[in-house]
Amino acid sequence: MPFAHSMSPTEPHASRSANAPATTVGGDRFELLVRSVRDYAIFMLDREGRVQTWNAGAENFKGWRAEEIIGRSFETFYTAEAIASGWPKTELRLATERGRSRTRAGACARTARSSGPTW
């Protein structure tokens, strides 16, 4: 399932006045749209890899409710073997360098809360 790391629509953009509010009506609508997507797991991480946002698709695919996973390390989604190999840290480094990361379902050994490893 896809995992996305990107700029939040509520973060100030370079083209926005420094005094303008960070949250806009358009940003609120965008956030509502992303949160309601059920076919894709879309969530954001901070630079340390802690889950910051969570959408309906992420809950559907991963089995965690937002209040259970927000603030936890994204390494929660990886097997012990993947963590030992350094794969999650590499993914986080690449996402930080590129501004996002996309991983298709079946491309890695991640775990879902209820079913264990997913391939």
In short:
This protein is mainly α and 119 residues long. Helix content is 34%, strand content 5%. It has a single domain, classed as PAS domain (Beta-Lactamase), CATH 3.30.450.
Blueprint (SSEs and pairs):
Layout: H1 25-36, H2 56-62, H3 66-69, H4 80-85, H5 87-98, E1 110-112, E2 116-118
Query: For the terminal residues, how far apart are their CA atoms?
Result: 10 Å
Determine the CATH superfamily.
PAS domain
Rg, Å, rounded: 15 Å
- SS elements, strand count: 2
As for the number of domains, it is: 1
Arithmetic mean pLDDT: 75
Percentage of β-strand residues: 5-15%
CATH T-level fold name: Beta-Lactamase
The CATH class designation is Alpha Beta
The strands making up the biggest β-sheet line up spatially as 1-2
Order of helices and strands: HHHHHEE
Number of helices: 5
Name the structural class: mainly alpha
Low-confidence stretches: 1-22
Name the quaternary structure: single chain
What CATH architecture do you see? Answer: 2-Layer Sandwich
Main β-sheet: number of strands, strand sense, barrel status? 2 strands, antiparallel
Outline type: globular
What would you say this structure looks like, in words?
34% of the residues lie in helices and 5% in strands. The protein has one domain (25-118): 2-Layer Sandwich (Beta-Lactamase), CATH 3.30.450. A hairpin with a 3-residue loop joins strand 1 (110-112) and strand 2. The radius of gyration is 15 Å and the shape is globular. The N and C termini lie close together (10 Å). By secondary structure, it is mainly α.
